[in-house]
Amino acid sequence: MHIQLSPLRSLNLDATLCCGQAFRWVKRGDWWYGVVGDRVLKVRQIARRLESENADLAFVEDYFGLTDDLQRILSSITKDKHIGQAVEAFRGLRILHQEPWECLISYICATYKNVPAIMQTIQRLSKSFGSLLTLDGQQFFAFPTPESLANSTVRGLEECGLGYRARYVSETARRIHETGLDLGRLRRVDREEARRELLNLPGVGPKVADCVLLFSLGKLEAFPVDVRIRRALLRHYSEHLAKELVKRVSDGRSLSSSEYEKLSRFGREYFGEYAGYAQEYLYHYERIRG
DNA sequence: CAAGTGCCTTTATC
DNA sequence: AGATAAAGGCACT
Question: Strand B closer than 7 Å to the CB of A43?
Fold first, then answer.
């Protein structure tokens, strides 16, 4: 199966898969391999041609966010030179449409870790508690179900490298499994309400909630603020922020919740309804350019 | 190569 | 409200 990408429907597959939004993709040669749901996806991009194995057109279009009007989104968020440079550098980077359960647990595991460590943790979690999948004679593992994680021991989770996050994952999984909470339902409620629900779960603070809203619930205005975005805002946007706030968040301390909300609200108000896209371009640009 | 620093933070406590 | 500390372990320098 292949999709011919027009300039109006551009995609930068490498940037999309290595920018740190998803943790289950590896590149071997030209091909990216990733587990999505209960299938192993194999995709590559040759210029304007996107080829994939193991998935139909509708699935690929949805997962890679090809249904989003990227032209409109990028012109909407390009408010100044700096974001303009980030957009130019990675034009075609898209926000994936991830599965909410996997996204939620992944970002609980991601707190205070670096990306390679997060990928390793998710891999170990899947290997221990997910079902085996094969493609091209290689083994992959599906992300564990809520039931599987709810029934695993905290010790077993710790052994996957979760550390103190193990009890958060265990408790959140148990709650979602036992109540049958449908995270997908949150796609249909507004951002604030969905966020409040997520914040009730253990291990979920404002940053994790905003990531889940953005990467799996279609809330494109969500603006997660991690250390890197915080640095980017201080470097390039401090003239838009209250002096008092700049002073308070300039040292290495972790953000208080009110400081977090102020920075995140700035992002939403400044970049507008697609602020989450701006966040991802800034995040990736900051990673590459420092 | 060892040792120090940092990490897409959250929670508990004062 | 705001400040402070602790948390497991890996990656990078």
Answer: no
